[in-house]
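ESCALATION

Customer reports they have been waiting on this structure for their group meeting. Please prioritize. Original submission:
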Amino acid sequence: MVVDNTHPPRAVRAPLIALGKGHGARVIAYYFECPVKTALARNRLREGRGRVPNVAIFVTAKKLAPPMLDEGFDEVHVIKSE
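Update from on-call: job pushed to the front of the queue and completed.
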């Protein structure tokens, strides 16, 4: 199973981790580290429903807690973005 979404706070990720663990799955996080400046620039290039208000990027960045092994992930991979 793949969950492709933004789950910035740990508390929101916890039920998904528990679900995977409950089914005996390895739970792996891929964290795409992206500076707010880069996210804003990419957002400006989007059109239609793909573009979000800038405030959404700032709010998400403020809530963001990068995934950590101590949450129950078996692996955490960080992909850096410029």
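Sent to customer with the following note: The first strand starts at residue 28 and ends at 33.
Escalation resolved.
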